[in-house]
Amino acid sequence: SASASSANPFLCVECENTILSFAVLSDDSDRLDTFLYNNGVLPRDKICPSCSSVMSLNINKHNFNCYNYITTVDKHKKKIKKQCKKSVSQFKNTWFENHNLSKQTICRFVVCWALLKPPRHDVLKHELELSDHAVVDWSNYLREVCVVVCSDESQVIGGPGKTVEIDEAKIGKRKYNRGRIIKGEWVFVGFERESKKCFLIPVATRGHAELLPIIKEHILPGTTVISDCWKTYNCLQFEGYTHLTVDHSYNFVDPETGAHTQHIERLWREVRGSVPRYGNRKQHFIGHLAEFMFKRKHSDYKTRVHNLFRAIGHLYNGENEHPNITREADTDSESDDY
């Protein structure tokens, strides 16, 4: 059987793009295609699913066609040659499959979404001439990519000699504002001071049964763990951790141990700022958190576009179905960033 270069599609090591530079790049169809090939978002080659030959690409029609002659046996057991003539869309199983928007518009949306901070809905709508639903749908598609990336890159932090701050909060809450009824979802976070690595996990409750398994899974034994005085954490000293506490009702720095959670307080402010104030439906919440984590990891403005397209190319590689991604139209436009 033949082999195609799509087996190793990521030819681009690292490229830099801004909104303006990508607008210029995407004005040239050939340059845009080259960018997408090099980042693995579009396949340049494909193996025929019928006869396993290398297919030819018709770039104008975005189709792969097979012109290979194959030998078959007719009903009289006579060998005959016939042309395969198999045709496959270049967009099949890619980021562009089953959508009416142009390739240029979709790519420009990805770039603007990656580099603009919320609220950006109206900017995306008017600059790219899209409907409200299109902005919401494509924003959610991109968050789904971030969810898969963050899940795949989940890592264990801490260890002997390392300090990890842990905390939990409801997004939208003003911490320690007593008596205020709030809505939102609990989120549990761990932040390693030395490396600035963190994990961010939505949880239904902040009870012992839910938080302790997460702590043991994500924080190595021997870690110095700093938390507030929430009773769930009282058992940590018996689970292989050195546990220090800070009573936020009185101070943010423990006068006896010097323990504080100021790093994690700063992180919470960043997370709250990344999640829309209105229309934050529960099923979209994880997506907003994943977007925050992805952009925090790829904080370099110019290379973030490259890394997002690489993630898209990895998930939508043109060869496989996408079991981890459900790309259904969202009927509630309030779910995006206002």
Automatic annotation (TrEMBL):
<protein>
    <submittedName>
        <fullName>Putative transposase-like protein HI_1328.1</fullName>
    </submittedName>
</protein>
<dbReference type="InterPro" id="IPR053164">
    <property type="entry name" value="IS1016-like_transposase"/>
</dbReference>
<dbReference type="Pfam" id="PF12762">
    <property type="entry name" value="DDE_Tnp_IS1595"/>
</dbReference>
<dbReference type="InterPro" id="IPR024445">
    <property type="entry name" value="Tnp_ISXO2-like"/>
</dbReference>
<feature type="domain" description="ISXO2-like transposase">
    <location>
        <begin position="156"/>
        <end position="297"/>
    </location>
</feature>
